[in-house]
Structures are given as C-alpha cells and as structure tokens.
Known about the structure:
The longest helix is centred in the middle third of the chain and has 26 residues. The chain has an 8-stranded mixed β-sheet, with helices on one face. It has an 8-stranded parallel beta barrel with strand order 16-17-18-19-20-21-22-23, surrounded by 5 helices. It has a 3-stranded antiparallel β-sheet with strand order 10-11-12, with no helix packed on it. It is an alpha/beta fold.
Amino acid sequence: LEFTLEDGVLAVLGLHPARRSARAAVRIAVDLATSGAVTREEAVMRIEPRLLNALLHPTIDAAAPRDVIARGLPASPGAAAGPLVFNAAAADAAAARGQPAVLARIETSPEDIRGMHSAAAVLTTRGGMTSHAAVVARGLGTPCVVGAADLVLDLEARALKGRDGRLFREGDLITVDGAAGEALAGAAPTVQPEFSGALAELMSWADGMRRLAVRANADTAQDARVALGFDADGIGLCRTEHMFFEQGRITAMRRMILAETSEDRRAALEQLLPIQRGDFIGLYRVMQGRPVTIRLLDPPLHEFLPHGEDEIADLAEAMDMAPKAIRRRIADLAEFNPMLGMRGCRLGVVLPEIYQMQARALFEALAQSWGGDGQLVTPEVMIPLVSARREAALIRRSIDAVAAEVSKETGRAFVYKVGVMVETPRAALRAGEIAEDAEFLSFGTNDLTQMTYGLSRDDAGRFMRDYVNAEVFAEDPFHTLDRDGVGELLILAAERARDRRADMPLGLCGEHGGDPASVEFCEAAGFDYVSCSPFRVPIARLAAAQASWRARG
C-alpha cells in the first residue's frame, strides 16, 4: 500500500498484490474473522481449496534452484527426493535400507503396489490423471508425476535420459515435484507441512457450513487411519483388489484365477478367505460408527497374473505345474481389451464363488468384530461396473444368501446395504430400474468419463495437454468433471433413480471427488457425499463448504 499524509489528509497512491504463502493466507483469514473484521463464512470463502496442498504435503523451497529434467502431469502433490530405481523390488530394498527411492516406470500396474508403498515418489513416462500410478499415489499421499513423455526409460539398462540428453542411472538422486508436474536433477531442499492451529480453526468453520459429506477412498486399516486424521466422514470406496497384492497373497490369488475347475477355484478361495476377513476386521475397528463402502473385486483378472519368466517359474513350482502349462493357461485367459472384458460384476455373474468368498469374509469379519452395542459399522457392499439390472439382481441375491448363512452360523443379525457403482453410460441411463435392486448408487467417474468419451484414461495424458491448449477441451476431463457430457449423465441418473426411490443415497467416488469444481457440481446436483483420496479430504471439505454457501447465497 503506497500512501501520503499531507496536512492531515490521507491519500492512497497505489495498491499492489502482496505475495504470500498458503499458510499466511489461512492465518490472515482466521485472524480477520477472530478480530471481527470479517465473518467466519467470509474467511472460509477467502481460501482457494487447492492452496491447502501446500499445507498438507512437503513442498520444494521457493528459494532453491530448479534443475528441471522433464515435465509431465501433476498427478499427486508433494515433493520428495531419492535414489532412482526402476522396479518395485528395488524400491522395497531401498526403503529397507532407510533411503526411500524414486520409482520410475513407463507406467505402473497393480503388481507395483508394494514398491509404490515403499517409494518416496513415483515418476512415469505414460499415463493421465486417473491412471493407475496417479490414483494409487494420491491415495498414499506420495508425490507423483505421470506422462513425462520427455523422458526415455531403458529398463534393461536401468537408465533414464532427460529431455536435454543427460543420463541418470539407478542410484542417482532426483526430485519429484508432484504439484508442479516436474522431475528435477539432484535432491532439492523441501519445506515440511505444518498443521497449524489456524488451519484447524478454518476447517472447523468449513465443516459447520457444508451439507455434502466427504468420505475417503481407503483400502486398508492404515489408509483408514490416515483418512480419519483428515476428518473424513467415512470410507466411500474400499478397493478390495489392492488387498490381494500383499506379500504372501498373490500366489493364492493366481492359483484361484488359473484354476480350471470350480473345485480348484474354491480351494484357492478358502486360502484367501481368512486373509480377506482379517483385512475387513481391521477396517471395521478403525472406522467404527462411520460408513464403510466395500467394492467387490473389479479389475480384469490378467492384472494379477505373472508376466516375467522368473515369476512364471516360481508360480509353476508353487502350483506343482510345468511352466509351459502355466503359460498356456495365461494365454487362454488373455483378452484383446481387458478393461472392457470380464471384469467388475461380470466376474460375479460368471464366477460367482469369488464374490461369495468376499461376502462371507466381510460378514464373518462383522460378526467377529461385534462391539458392546452391536456391529461396529453398517457395511455398504458395492457391485462394480453394472450395466443391466439383472446383473445387480443376481449378485444381490447371492450376497443376501451368504449374509443369511453367516447370520445363522454366528447368531448375529446383520444390518448392511447393497448398492451399485455406476460406471457405464448404460447404467446411468437405466439408473431408475437399477435402483430397484440397490440401496445406494455411487458414481465411478473415472471409468464413466473414459467410456463416455471413448478415451483411455491411461493413454490420454500423451495428448491431453495439446487438446487443452487447442481449446478442444476446456480442462482435462479426467481431472475436472465434464459437466456438459458426463455431468448430464449424472443428473439423468440421479433424477431417474430418485423417481423410483426418493430417498436414494447418491455419491461420487471417482478421483473427481477431490476436485473443487467437481465438488461444487455434486452440491448443485443434490448428491449426498463425495469420496476422494485421503490427502485430498481437507480440500474437498473446504470446497464443499464453499459450494454450500454459494448455493444458499
């Protein structure tokens, strides 16, 4: 503020915006409200939700030099440095030595889960904002850059070439800035997040303003603890497939998939049942009293199968089969387009014993974690990738039958809900009839966007920046919900479902659940909750408060 004071008269000469950190912006807003200069609601409305990223994750010191070697998509915020590694096993080994690494991959797959848990950061040369690497990294709170097409990865030589020709080998230090979407040479200095009293105060005011519940996508008891640390209202999406990639489980899972008879498949599922039951017990005990939505197995089965010859040899030994027989069985299960093949509820229809095992595990877990006042949670069982009412009806009947069996065996009377994950355009259009067999609908907007556009969410990152720059799309539709196309399907589905059942709970559990503009859409559409990665929960809470305030104003 530039001013003069002449003969007792104040004259303002000029105003210039002052640069301030996210922490300062929050503190100023809270101080203004505390002093009475603005209302609490006005203080909440002053903070851009995405600013909270700087308060929830480590950031690179603004004064530090930046030696950028590649740019990609900012898939998961935060900054971290570490030695470069090129596979999940090496990431595990580095973490065991006490120096978490930067895991570089062309793209990640579910079998990389353990390495991603161990890594300080993740960097891929392919992928978009809802690719496997992006979704998992956001859930873990791990810095991640995807679609860094400037980089050339030579996995055999364990080397990475930057856009300027520099070569980085395994063990070389690099930094990933997930907020800026950049990879840097060396270990850049970082500033650690601070959860100040001002932020907690602001968030308590925001919670008092919002109507929309904010749940978290959490797959394990540890994920659930993180979500509660960010004051999530519950779990809106537990992806059970991630449980099967833990050490000691994948062999039993592969044995089940490769089984040629129902008897062999059931024998393998008997091995998985106590493991899955234990997972659910841990989840229930952390989340007691809060909603927990458990999605039944969703991905195509090929994602669990071995790829390299060493893995095939190990599995052949474990199953007492010839490697040739394993390779033949894998070839039998191959699909040309597995993401549109036998996955989701199609598994439950064609191989019903898989979902029956999962249902038994979640009900037995409920019985074994019974509290003094009854069951700890009311589980919401979600059927994925439904396109027709009959799919939901068949699987619902099977779930109810298992619940009745476990109830008789344990003497417990269970309360639970069965709902549908709406991910296909047909499911959105037929939501009215699907609602007849569902007690809630949750919109999986990652797949719904992919299928509505006919765009691969894993590959669109290669050209999406060009599309946005050419103004073909205003935003990346995998990052911010497309209101005109996908949004119209959501509104149609909501209206048709509530025409059949006026009190039908509606939620959104795609990655759009943590995007402020998408949260505002859900508020306007009358949804009941959004669900997002745990580290995005505060952003969604603040966005929900602002959306609710605008709707009232």
